[in-house]
Design brief:
The chain is an alpha/beta fold. It has two domains: 97 residues, Enolase-like, domain 1 (2-Layer Sandwich); 217 residues, Alpha-Beta Barrel (TIM Barrel). Helix content is 33%, strand content 22%.
């Protein structure tokens, strides 16, 4: 007989985490536990208010019903989780962890053996010019060779100045710059802004306009001087399939967030379709704690060893679950000799 329960968590950011959708000071989520009497698997149900499609008003009710179905051995008849992708992802993590003895090694590999690491970008959060400049200097000093800068919340001229500062110190072959606009560019200005930004050797720009404007996004992808990556566009598909979306818009990249897309099986579908469509991809976290970050990193390593991933968010919080994960010189690693802390 299985036992299941959930636990709410709240993580506090070390700073006001600002995006074009507003600021965040705390990160809410849930851990899902499934036990067989000897071992316990744990998964993380991670959502982002204002971005996830999960119905947060009924979230705990759905989690409770899911736990009851697990304990009654009726998981196959449990209510559909299609409207709760973060719970679906957490359930998948917990089941995989339990299957592997509750070791938190869901996908054993050279990564979990401590023999290989994953290249990750250094994330630069929005803020005033001095704050962003401070972050950029810190990431460069820490050895990152790829940085991702969130744009769209401060004056565009200041953002251009920051990019100019980076390029004066580091050419494009030394530091890769990715931009994340979080849908902040207006339809009438998007191509003009992308043209200006292209002067700084930008690798890619995520979600330059708000999701749902498919005709415009198709035009942007076809005409942008900077390769475009779809992010939010993948989260809430309405009236269009994954395959149809990729074939219609023809993006250069897609960004996969397992917690917001329904887990690893769903992301595997995206990877297969992207490969057929000759669209490249990488994965990013959805502000998970180290529990979710660990699972995503292990999955990513089995899919792609060399692409720079967006998995360096574990150090954002004043308190997090201590883990074997570490970042050094722009690489995410796993030290199997380091024990996990209490959840």
């Amino acid at each position: 007989m299985l036992k299941a329960h959930y636990k709410k968590y709240q993580l506090h950011f070390k700073f006001n985490a600002l995006t074009s959708r507003g600021g965040m000071q705390v990160k809410n989520g849930y851990y899902l536990f499934i036990s067989d009497g000897e071992n316990t698997g744990i998964g993380e149900c991670s959502f982002i208010e204002g971005l996830s499609i999960d119905d947060l008003s009924g979230y705990e009710k759905v989690l409770g019903e899911l736990c009851r179905h697990i304990e009654d051995d009726k998981i196959k008849s449990a209510p559909s989780l299609d409207d709760y992708p973060s719970i679906k992802a957490g359930l998948e993590m917990a089941k995989l962890d339990l299957l592997h003895g509750g070791s938190k090694v869901l996908y054993k590999s050279a990564f979990t053996d401590g023999e290989a690491q994953i290249p990750v970008n250094g994330l630069i959060w929005m803020g005033d010019r001095d704050f962003m400049l401070q972050q950029i200097n810190q990431k460069l000093d820490e050895g990152f060779r790829c940085i991702k800068i969130k744009v769209g919340a401060i004056n565009f001229e200041d953002e251009v100045m920051l990019l100019d500062f980076i390029r004066q110190k580091f050419p494009a072959d030394a530091i890769e710059i990715r931009l994340d606009a979080n849908g902040s560019f207006k339809p009438h200005e998007v191509l003009e802004k992308l043209d200006i930004l292209s002067n700084f050797g930008i690798h890619s720009v995520e979600q330059p306009i708000k999701q749902g404007q498919l005709e415009l996004m198709k035009k942007v992808c076809a005409n942008s001087p900077i390769p475009v990556a779809l992010d939010e566009e993948l989260i809430d598909l309405k009236g269009i399939s994954k395959s149809e979306l990729l074939q219609f818009i023809q993006p250069q990249y897609i960004i996969l967030k397992p917690s917001l897309l329904g887990g690893f099986e769903s992301c595997n579908e995206w990877v297969d379709l992207a490969t057929k469509n000759k669209t490249c991809w990488w994965a990013t976290s959805a502000l998970e704690s180290n529990i979710g970050l660990n699972a995503i990193a292990q999955w990513v390593f089995t899919k792609s060893e060399n692409v720079v991933q967006g998995l360096g968010t574990g150090g954002l919080y004043t308190h997090n679950v201590s883990s074997p994960l570490f970042i050094s010189n722009g690489l995410l690693g796993y030290d199997p000799s380091t024990p996990w802390g209490d959840v």
